[in-house]
User: Which sequence fits this backbone?
């Protein structure tokens, strides 16, 4: 846990202030020695109900104190409150922990076309309230580690980074090769390991060495020799996406593929993936989910990244594309067998119907998994399949709600649960004194409408009047970022890239 001196808490000054408190002294992108968020309604990130009004005191990048305010004294104008001139007025607004993106790819180019470095990616994360990311499969693992250190020193604007480079490669042919690769990853300073499908003996050696080196493993299980049973037996930290879970529950051990199926043809792969959940035996699936819970294998489902498969038109016409979609990313999304996830060639309404059923069964499995005590996280896997960085995570939250989770649980999935999966739950993922000052200020009520978490401020009718709603501030490590200012910079990057 980040330490916090008791003397600092004892020295907090209090003054009498009225209910109204204008935002004053706050500079976008600049840390203050003392920042107070006033009159907030707070959602902790641990699944408990909202409470407020509270004043949240931030000092030296930490939450120094949370002061519950007396409503009667507030109305009288003589409430005793923390003193400070640098303040954000959160009257009528909600404060949540900064969101954590547990499955993301830090990308600077798509389809061989540069996006001008990583600024576009990093600003989109902050603009969507994301203050921590788990990078799973970097363009260049050494570069990602350098960026992590630059961000930690305050030299790079962006969220906190945990780096999980890709494990595999042509040179890993034996269990001995696997152990050497894990040792090499430990030497260069990674935070964990991301792997896709592996032969069982290679995975066993990798997992044994990873445990020895103290490196957690995130497993993108494909249609491979290994599935969720191997993750359960070997101690994987989290299953990414979902393939290996229903695969482990199929009665005859393998999905009924047609004779001309080719896994490396992505149109084949994703078309038949849409028929996978229906082939899982419910009783076997129940056993798999219970075993995952017992083995503490978490699940990061990335519901958003497959949504185009059930509704391609919606995916292609998202409202933020016009102003904020970089042309390099737009080009990558176009159907093209050369680009991973750009598989919509001959996609039909029949494919979408199967995928809609796939989602219904998948979402029911997620509900069952959590009811059994399982840990569900949030990640967007954006940069593929019509999902923009950051925006995809908010859509992921909406899909968790569609799956039947209460908004408080959805927020917990993307804050407290993600912190637990990443092994940092003692310092981020909560609105709690002593924790990192990673917070978001939302103009609107996300428990009523998760769309208020998007950075694009929406004009809504409420009580017969027009009201604006959207993310207003992202505070990362105590540094306040004004979301409309971030969005303006992102738009400028996109506009510049569109010019001939």
Assistant:
């Amino acid at each position: 846990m980040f330490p916090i001196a008791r003397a600092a808490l004892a020295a907090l000054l209090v003054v009498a202030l009225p209910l109204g408190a204008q935002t004053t002294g706050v500079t976008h992108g600049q840390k203050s020695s003392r920042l107070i968020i006033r009159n907030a309604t707070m959602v902790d990130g641990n699944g408990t109900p909202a409470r407020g009004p509270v004043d949240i005191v931030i000092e030296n990048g930490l939450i120094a104190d949370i002061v519950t305010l007396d409503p009667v004294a507030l109305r009288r104008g003589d409430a005793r409150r923390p003193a400070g001139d640098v303040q954000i007025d959160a009257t009528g607004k909600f404060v949540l922990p900064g969101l954590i993106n547990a499955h993301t790819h830090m990308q600077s180019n798509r389809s061989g076309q540069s996006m001008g470095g990583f600024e576009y990616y990093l600003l989109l994360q902050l603009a969507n309230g994301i203050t921590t990311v788990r990078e799973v499969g970097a363009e260049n693992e050494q570069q990602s580690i350098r960026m992590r250190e630059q961000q930690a020193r305050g030299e790079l604007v962006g969220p906190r980074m945990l780096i999980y480079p890709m494990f595999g490669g042509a040179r890993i042919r034996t269990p001995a090769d696997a152990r050497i690769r894990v040792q090499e990853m430990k030497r260069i300073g990674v935070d964990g390991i991301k792997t896709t499908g592996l032969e069982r003996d290679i995975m066993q050696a990798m997992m044994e060495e990873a445990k020895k080196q103290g490196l957690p493993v995130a497993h993108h299980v494909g249609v491979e020799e290994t599935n969720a049973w191997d993750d359960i037996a070997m101690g994987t930290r989290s299953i990414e996406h979902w393939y290996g879970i229903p695969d482990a529950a199929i009665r005859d051990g393998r999905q009924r593929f047609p004779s001309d199926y080719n896994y490396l043809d992505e149109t084949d792969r994703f078309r038949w993936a849409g028929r996978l959940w229906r082939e899982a035996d419910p009783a076997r699936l129940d056993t798999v989910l219970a075993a995952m819970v017992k083995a503490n294998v978490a699940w990061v489902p990335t519901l958003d990244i497959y949504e185009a498969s059930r509704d391609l038109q919606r995916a292609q016409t998202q409202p933020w594309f016009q102003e904020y979609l970089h042309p390099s990313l737009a080009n990558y999304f176009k159907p093209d067998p050369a680009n991973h996830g750009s598989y919509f060639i001959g996609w039909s309404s029949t494919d979408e119907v199967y995928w809609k059923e796939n989602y219904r069964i998948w979402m029911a499995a997620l509900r069952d998994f959590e009811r059994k005590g399982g840990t569900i996280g949030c990640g967007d896997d954006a940069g593929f399949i019509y999902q923009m960085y950051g925006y995809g995570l908010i859509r992921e939250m909406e899909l968790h709600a569609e799956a039947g989770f209460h908004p408080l649980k959805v927020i917990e999935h993307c804050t407290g649960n993600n912190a637990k999966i990443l092994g940092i739950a003692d310092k981020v993922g909560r609105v709690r004194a002593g924790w990192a000052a990673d917070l978001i200020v939302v103009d609107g009520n996300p428990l009523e409408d998760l769309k208020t978490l998007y950075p694009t401020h929406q004009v809504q009718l409420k009580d017969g009047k027009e009201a604006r709603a959207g993310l207003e501030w992202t505070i990362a490590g105590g540094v306040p970022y004004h979301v409309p200012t971030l969005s303006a910079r992102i738009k400028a990057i996109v506009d510049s890239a569109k010019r001939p």
Summary: The CA atoms of residues 141 and 357 lie 38 Å apart.
